Amino acid sequence: MLSIKRLNTRDDGFKASLRALLAFDATQDDSIENAVTDILKGVRQHGDAALLDYTRRFDRVTAASVAELEITPAALAAALDSLDAAQRQALEAAADRVRRYHERQRAETWTYTEDDGTMLGQKITPLDRVGLYVPGGKAAYPSSVLMNAIPAKVAGVGEVVMVTPTPDGLRNPIVLAAAALGGVDRAWAIGGAQAVAALAFGTDTIAPVDKIVGPGNAYVAAAKRRVFGVVGIDMIAGPSEILIVADGTTPADWVAMDLFSQAEHDELAQAILLCPDAGYLDQVAQAMDRLLPGMPRADIIRTSLANRGGLIQVRDMEEACEIANDIAPEHLEISADEPQRWADLIRHAGALFLGRYSSEALGDYCAGPNHVLPTSRTARFSSPLGVYDFQKRSSLIQVSRDGAQTLGRIAACLAYGEGLQAHAASAEYRLPSTEKT
Amino acid sequence: MLSIKRLNTRDDGFKASLRALLAFDATQDDSIENAVTDILKGVRQHGDAALLDYTRRFDRVTAASVAELEITPAALAAALDSLDAAQRQALEAAADRVRRYHERQRAETWTYTEDDGTMLGQKITPLDRVGLYVPGGKAAYPSSVLMNAIPAKVAGVGEVVMVTPTPDGLRNPIVLAAAALGGVDRAWAIGGAQAVAALAFGTDTIAPVDKIVGPGNAYVAAAKRRVFGVVGIDMIAGPSEILIVADGTTPADWVAMDLFSQAEHDELAQAILLCPDAGYLDQVAQAMDRLLPGMPRADIIRTSLANRGGLIQVRDMEEACEIANDIAPEHLEISADEPQRWADLIRHAGALFLGRYSSEALGDYCAGPNHVLPTSRTARFSSPLGVYDFQKRSSLIQVSRDGAQTLGRIAACLAYGEGLQAHAASAEYRLPSTEKT
């Protein structure tokens, strides 16, 4: 039997119970922080030598030079060629759909000219070089390689550099194939905080990048947090979450399996179902009991659902949407007959999956939108990974001689008000009364 | 006499000299970090009471309740009414221009439907509530209030909440007037790390926000860094910088004053001039010597230029643009006859000021683009503050029954490859062969 919390919004203390369910201790571990401090310092000071040393100690891979740790473009291409036909086709179809969706996110430079000839605008440029971290071992997801590399290449990033640890020298061929398909330009068999340090600071062999993206363990996350400012970073992801708002019209088995598909990620993953119909919640609970034994990752699912899962009875669908906005979930399935009606009420969610056919799993792999999404309520203020994370803007200001007369007076007045006389003088120099050439 | 470094790209060791000039020690101060830890904990645990206590200790303002510390909408409106006509007109003209520019940055929701009926898209929503930190005392810039509040309101943020310390009860009327003009919804006379804590965690009187923006001292910066994740934050700004690329055709006095306008901000500000013409660099140096005594902030300017300023002779304008890309300056003036020709070579800068009439001061106050810009080389990967910082995206995925057949197969294949059987089953449930209702 599967144990999962049942809540009802009519209960006293529901809000507190919901908060307790959502709570997640993100406290940083001092021993990890200290280890990362040492590793960052080591790579910064000793470069390639430190990188080789840490790789030998942590991944049990001995190399005479960092150059030996390169996974060559030929090796990436060979991995792609080695896939069986079905897997290759699936990966290619996914890459193609992800690319097409992300192409719509590309921003373009714009300018406009005012009546007096002053031109204003916003110039869009891609980042020069981006580092993509890909975990080794069991958390190595080829789909993540696509989701991170493709937006960068669509943005026009000059060079995408992948790092991935290869413990005991073991390379994951599907990950390398995905790198080839995603357009990764160079790849290195390094990982951990030492790989983050190499990307941020550069070494003799590895050129520094401008931004580092991609998931990683606690050491990688701590290292990314530390190098932020030297380089850009993407979000530091918390545990993955799904919230399903159901009106009770989707087969209970489907919703049960959607909850499982989140819970199977890891013990900290969170899967919550909201529905106005208590009977439907019962059906889903029964379906979960029936389906669990067939799941290879049943133990992870059981722990995740027992500790962090929830079946919540709401008064109505409107209330479900209010709660969804409060939770601001990473993934929100609206499994209902009129999904758009409820979607219109949603302000905060990483991705909305509308209607019974839109299971999260389809979005995780191949619908097109990115699967790197804001977790832990950060959808209140942040967005899925996208092309916009690999482009940046520069303001364009070309003031005409006439424009300088108007703007100069305004600027000088405000500058005097702020006590900044050099600002005022710089503006006034451009006025006709003082203009000298 | 003003002392400022002269460099030449032809010199041995130029690169190292340039690095040394750009270097800036951003080490965090442990005593500040510890104080901020205590303040955050205090406000989190004791709410309003802690806020009142810190405000009494740090700002010497005693209030019986946090409600007493509100700066009411009527008080903001009164401050606006109290401005003299010229200043009010200047502030209104600036607000109007900033608003018009930022309206072009607003993103809109888009969707598209594929042949099989699957709908994909990107939904745009504003943040619900934003906190705007405005420093008290000498660093209180009304222009900054406009530059932070207007993009938030253009984005559609429901509530913009300003906090600003009022040491000894002293309120800055121009700051309050700018808040009224910028559309600030509520304002509180609180500051420091305690104000950041109140905005991030909320108290009985102050509702929590979703993002905190605006400049502040080291305590405010440390507090923002700590609450990041609970709320969004804007960049933590380093010292302000200008890089001027000149071809020698702009009056030397103008360029000298533009360098001063950056240097007068504070002793750590950085002002650097690149020019192929040694004679012109001499002229600018002479102009600075002549103009410095007339500057009220001459001491700050002298220190800033002596420690962090530079006049650099380059081989040609192309080389100047290469160096500009390496520096990735916050402000880049291209003071030249063909500014667009050189602007096309620039990949990394917060804002580009093109042509002799486009002094940075015009952009600081009223050209239209934002004056909150990426510092310390972060223009390599980040952008000016904009409407996009107050909007966020949610992916939209509505898979049709037909679409689920195609996508389900791809997703299931990839999910099996990643060992995620519940993902595969969730996708396969939507295939016709297994579909049950």
The biggest beta sheet of chain A, please? 6 strands, parallel
Which whole number gives the mean pLDDT of chain A? 95
Give me the CATH fold name of the largest domain in chain A.
Rossmann fold
Helix content of chain A: 40-55%
Q: Radius of gyration of chain A over alpha carbons?
A: 26 Å
SS element count, helices of chain A: 16
Secondary structure: number of strands of chain A: 15
The low-confidence parts of chain A are none
Question: Within the largest sheet of chain A, what's the order of strands?
Answer: 1-12-11-10-13-14
Measure the end-to-end span of chain A.
Answer: 87 Å
Largest interface: A-B, 119 and 119 residues
Which outline of chain A best applies?
A: globular
Number of domains of chain A: 3
Estimate what percentage of residues of chain A fall within beta strands.
Answer: 15-25%
CATH superfamily of the largest domain in chain A: Nitrogenase molybdenum iron protein domain
CATH architecture label name of the largest domain in chain A? 3-Layer(aba) Sandwich
Return the CATH class of the largest domain in chain A: Alpha Beta
Feature tags:
Rossmann fold, Histidinol_DH_CS (chains A, B), 3 domains, 16% strand, globular, 437 residues, six-stranded parallel β-sheet, Ald_DH/histidinol_DH (chains A, B), six-stranded mixed β-sheet, alpha/beta, NAD binding (chains A, B), homodimer
Give your account of this protein's structure.
Two copies of one chain form a homodimer. With 437 residues, chain A is of the alpha/beta class. The first copy, chain A, folds into three domains: 5-24 and 238-367, Nitrogenase molybdenum iron protein domain (Rossmann fold); 30-233, Nitrogenase molybdenum iron protein domain (Rossmann fold, 3-Layer(aba) Sandwich); 401-437, no CATH class. Chain A has 16 helices and 15 strands. Chain A has helices at 14-22, 30-59, 73-82, 85-103, 142-155, 173-182, 192-201, 218-227, 252-263, 278-291, 298-308, 317-327, 339-343, 360-365, 401-417, 421-428, and strands spanning 5-8, 70-71, 110-113, 119-126, 129-133, 159-163, 186-188, 211-213, 232-233, 241-246, 270-275, 310-313, 331-335, 351-354, 391-398. In chain A, the strands form three sheets. In chain A, strands 1-12-11-10-13-14 form a six-stranded parallel β-sheet, sandwiched between helices. A six-stranded mixed β-sheet of chain A has the order 2-7-6-5-8-9, with helices on both faces. Chain A has a three-stranded antiparallel β-sheet with strand order 3-4-15, with no helix packed on it. In chain A, strand 13 (331-335), helix 13 and strand 14 (351-354) form a beta-alpha-beta unit. The longest helix of chain A has 30 residues, at 30-59. The termini of chain A are far apart. At the A-B interface, helix 4, strand 4, helix 9, helix 13 and strand 14 of A face helix 4, strand 4, helix 9, helix 13 and strand 14 of B.
